[in-house]
Specification:
With about 300 residues, this protein is mainly α. It contains eleven helices and three strands, in the order ααααααααβββααα. It is globular and about 70 Å long.
Length: about 300
């Protein structure tokens, strides 16, 4: 029988001790690959249609930024997540079952919102089942942020869009006479001396509202540690976006009256959208700075 040297025994011992770990990591890798493949097989149509909507429909274009930001949040928490000992929970199966039920309801009920949000529910169930409650708690914000990328149902969107159209046209028609422009408003139609100005769905402000709200959430998370200030920033984006849209319609009406109707409805209308959105971001930054200054003065007073 051949002799085995001490160094050979050490090598064999090391190989025997490492082998189970390598096998375990291999099983985890294969398991993750199978789960990803199953999700891709189930959701490829749902995700494909969602990406197309982000790319082609301006109202939903902010959705392109949400998944990368969610990935950034997970990467930022990587050390915390690696330090957590996985504690799989059977409750994850119930959450996953609920997610599949929502998916079936969305597919057979022809409701895109349900089929899309079911993916978020299913991901939460997977995290709970394989990682446990602590994993889910740490990943709750990245999961919730994904909801911002999902367009609202048409029923809810219409209930928001139409009141925004009426409000914007009412306020703009009230401000235009101050600048010497006579107007007559009928619903969302503003009649000017040179032409009729229609505040259509695209001009309701829902696009800037959703985009600014999403940016406010991003900005608040990165720049603020206080949850209260984050919430205030997110809520402040709503009146800022609505006011910005009114200013845009007011500017369009003034250009129609005092410049050129064709240019007002063409170049100015498109270019002003970007300018107004940048101004809205500046206003959001101003709200943040005001909160910081107020907090410092309050601490000094105390």
């Amino acid at each position: 029988m051949p002799e085995v040297s001490i160094s050979d025994r050490a090598t064999l011992g090391t190989a025997q001790s490492v082998s189970p770990l390598g096998s375990w990591n291999s099983r985890i890798g294969w398991g993750a690959a199978i789960i990803v493949a199953l999700l891709a097989a189930i959701y490829y149509q749902v995700i494909g249609k969602l990406v197309v909507d982000w790319w082609q429909i301006p109202d939903f274009s902010h959705g392109l930024l949400v998944p990368p930001f969610a990935a950034f949040l997970i990467w930022e928490k990587r050390k915390t997540l690696l330090a957590i000992k996985p504690a799989p929970s059977w409750g994850g199966i119930a959450v996953m079952a609920f997610g599949i039920a929502v998916l079936l309801l969305g597919v057979y009920g022809a409701e895109l919102f349900l089929s899309r949000i079911s993916l978020v529910i299913l991901l939460a169930g997977l995290v709970l089942y394989f990682g446990g409650h602590r994993f889910l708690i740490e990943l709750r914000f990245p999961l919730l942020i994904l909801i911002l990328a999902i367009p609202l149902p048409s029923l809810i969107l219409n209930q928001i869009t139409f009141p925004l159209q009426i409000f914007a046209s009412k306020v703009a028609s009230g401000l235009l006479p101050i600048f010497g422009v006579p107007v007559l408003r009928e619903g969302n139609i503003i009649e000017l001396p040179l032409m009729k100005l229609e505040v259509a769905e695209a001009c309701s402000g829902i696009r800037s509202l959703m985009s600014l709200f999403t940016m406010a959430v991003f900005y608040g998370y990165i720049m603020e540690k206080s949850i209260t200030r984050r919430v205030v920033l997110a809520l402040a984006s709503i009146p800022i976006a609505i006011a910005a849209n009114v200013v845009r319609i007011l500017g369009t009406g003034l250009c129609v009256q005092y410049w050129d109707p064709d240019k007002a409805m063409g170049f100015f209308h498109e270019f002003s959208g970007w300018v107004i959105f940048l101004v809205s971001l500046v206003c959001l930054f101003a709200v943040h700075r005001t909160m910081i200054l107020f907090s410092k003065k309050r601490r000094r007073a105390l």
